[in-house]
């Protein structure tokens, strides 16, 4: 069996931070030699158990994952990444790759292996003439938006500031400008990537085109991206914000919302929130803690035209709060900051929908009402627009025809009852199964075979072929994994052949 497949034993998770590597683990491969090599070769910091930075460094956004890596390598450049890939391969170390750390499945950390932490790689180079940018993976989308904003430029990305460039860009990128400018991968010109053999290659439409295809939606399966070149687009002022309604008429509001949002011009991207109204100053005190429907909007064209387009969404009932106003694009992220408390446990499920039926909306509203609590956030996005005009086989993200996406999440402190939070998440997810079709890799939690819902059979087969070519021993397996079949063939070969 290839060494990469050998599961490492669990550390004793005793919560102590001042233990030495040798006493941390039982039945654990002894990686001391590998760690010594890394310590002498990489230019970035190597954080080991006992280092004051270890406790924070071992954690990721989803607090459910309480893991103890043998070492965390904070890379400063692609050369560091190459060194680590070579050492991890040679010593068969489990490898986690982390940019912004938001993987719902906690893939950005592990117990007993190595974490490549790219969060220090934050260079951004903007070419105003070509309207392009080179982004390093450790940037967050909030940081990117802030840099581009004064230049009147932007790049379509997600809806939350702290999400990392690395993970989102390899998965797809569905956010506030998805209908106007497509997925983030649709703006990619090239990716610099360290492959499993330690080579740094630049993949684009002209060089390594199949790898470039797979990197756009295939997640971190084919290498470690050290930089992305993207085409920018206009992005100064937008008409953005949210309007909140009482959820008593949620079903009618959602029916009208889906119809209006799908028929709107591409400049308008939207997202609906179903939740308990937060104790925020803009919510009247008597409505705080009651179920509400919030419609978030981002209109990227002329503001007065946007006012006209958005108006019907603001008149679906009597709003309890209307925060829609002209604002810088980067300000949209401030509105979602409430949903991103790092270290909370996070339970989520997500599904794509080809279309919206009254029955599907009825089911969504009923199921959401049945679980709603201060920990619940159910979101529904109407897709389409520029994202849907890219051919399904142009990138590894093939769900171009999907009209909708639902994400149901429960966030809570670690002391909360995880079983109950998970059960409530699953209840909404299961209720929607009869209407759902497909999954988004960026929102997949630890869900095993649901990877097959992310990639239709043709796409999956093409990704497996690419994996066989670029990572036949599955060095990069702490991700939504495309399993190579080349390794299985190797295993089946008689010894000595
Ligand atoms: C609060 C929240 C909001 C979100 N909102 C959106 C949204 O609006 N739209 C959207 O599309 N997605 C969204 N996502 C999903 C997000 O895109 C994915 O979770 C993404 O993988 C996170 O990227 P990261 O770099 O922060 O995470 P990480 O945990 O660092 O990375 C996730 C995985 O991606 C791979 N990876 C990361 N960086 C690299 C790299 N440089 N090279 C190779 N592989 C790499 C690794 O396999 C890693 O395990 C959201 C997630 C959260 C938690």
Which properties best describe this structure?
binds flavin-adenine dinucleotide, Uridine Diphospho-n-acetylenolpyruvylglucosamine Reductase, domain 2, disordered N terminus, 16 helices, 4 domains, 8-stranded antiparallel β-sheet, Vanillyl-alcohol Oxidase, Chain A, domain 3, alpha+beta, about 500 residues, 5-stranded antiparallel β-sheet, single chain, Uridine Diphospho-n-acetylenolpyruvylglucosamine Reductase, domain 3
Overview of the structural elements:
The structure is a single chain. The chain is α+β, with helices and mostly antiparallel strands. The protein folds into four domains: 3-117, Uridine Diphospho-n-acetylenolpyruvylglucosamine Reductase, domain 2, CATH 3.30.43.10; 124-234, Uridine Diphospho-n-acetylenolpyruvylglucosamine Reductase, domain 3; 237-451, Vanillyl-alcohol Oxidase, Chain A, domain 3; 460-491, no CATH class. The chain is built from 16 helices and 19 strands. It has helices at 21-24, 32-41, 54-57, 78-90, 141-148, 165-171, 178-181, 209-215, 250-263, 303-310, 332-336, 358-371, 418-432, 451-454, 457-470, 486-492; strands at residues 45-47, 71-74, 95-98, 114-117, 124-127, 132-135, 153-154, 188-194, 200-204, 224-231, 233-234, 237-246, 268-276, 291-299, 321-322, 325-328, 345-353, 376-382, 404-412. Strands 12, 13, 14, 15, 16, 17, 18 and 19 form an eight-stranded antiparallel beta sheet that branches. It has a five-stranded antiparallel beta sheet with strand order 5-6-10-8-9. β5 (124-127) and β6 form a beta hairpin. α2 (32-41) runs antiparallel to α4 (78-90). The chain is globular, with a radius of gyration of 23 Å. Mean pLDDT is 92; it is low at 1-26.
């Amino acid at each position: 069996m290839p060494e990469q497949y050998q599961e490492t034993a669990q550390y004793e998770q005793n919560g102590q931070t001042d233990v030495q590597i040798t006493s941390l683990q039982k039945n654990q491969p002894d990686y001391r030699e590998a760690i010594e090599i890394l310590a002498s070769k990489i230019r970035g910091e190597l954080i080991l158990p006992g280092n004051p930075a270890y406790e924070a460094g071992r954690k990721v956004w989803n607090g459910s994952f309480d893991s103890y890596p043998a070492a965390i390598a904070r890379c400063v450049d692609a050369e560091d990444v190459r060194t680590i890939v070579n050492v991890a391969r040679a010593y068969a170390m489990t490898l986690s790759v982390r940019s912004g750390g938001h993987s719902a499945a906690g893939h950005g950390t592990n117990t007993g292996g190595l974490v490549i932490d790219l969060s220090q790689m934050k260079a951004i180079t903007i070419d105003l003439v070509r309207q392009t940018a080179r982004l390093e993976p450790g940037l967050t989308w909030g940081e990117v938006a802030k840099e581009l904003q004064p230049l009147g430029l932007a790049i379509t990305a997600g809806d939350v500031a702290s999400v990392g460039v690395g993970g989102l860009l390899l998965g797809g990128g569905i956010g506030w400008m998805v209908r106007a400018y497509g997925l983030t991968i649709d703006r990619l010109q090239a990716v610099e990537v360290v492959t499993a053999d330690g080579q740094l290659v630049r993949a684009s439409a002209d060089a390594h085109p199949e790898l470039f295809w797979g990197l756009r939606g295939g997640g971190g399966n084919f290498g470690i991206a050290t930089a992305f070149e993207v085409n920018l687009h206009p992005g100064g002022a937008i008409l953005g914000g949210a309007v909140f309604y009482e959820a008593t008429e949620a079903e009618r509001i959602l029916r009208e919302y889906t119809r209006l949002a799908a028929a709107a011009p591409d400049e308008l991207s939207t997202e609906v929130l179903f939740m308990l109204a937060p104790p925020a100053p803009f919510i009247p005190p008597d409505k705080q803690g009651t179920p509400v429907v919030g419609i978030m909007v981002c209109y990227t064209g002329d503001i007065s035209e946007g006012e006209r387009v958005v108006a019907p969404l603001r008149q679906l009932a009597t709003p309890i709060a209307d925060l829609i106003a002209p604002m810088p694009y980067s300000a949209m992220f401030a509105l979602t900051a409430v949903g991103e408390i790092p270290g909370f446990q996070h339970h989520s499920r997500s599904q794509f929908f080809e279309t919206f039926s009254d029955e599907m909306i009825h089911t969504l509203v009923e199921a959401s009402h049945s679980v709603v609590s201060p920990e619940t956030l159910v979101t529904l996005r109407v897709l389409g627009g520029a994202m849907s005009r890219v051919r399904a086989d142009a990138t590894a993200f093939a769900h171009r025809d999907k009209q909708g996406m639902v994400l149901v999440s429960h966030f809570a402190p670690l002391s909360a009852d995880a079983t109950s939070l998970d059960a409530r998440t699953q209840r909404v997810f299961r209720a929607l199964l009869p209407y759902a079709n497909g999954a988004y890799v960026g929102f997949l939690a630890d869900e095993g075979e649901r990877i097959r819902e992310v990639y239709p059979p043709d796409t999956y087969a093409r990704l497996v072929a690419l994996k066989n070519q670029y990572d036949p021993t599955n060095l990069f397996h702490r991700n939504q994994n495309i399993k190579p079949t080349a390794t299985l063939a190797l295993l089946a070969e008689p010894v000595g052949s």
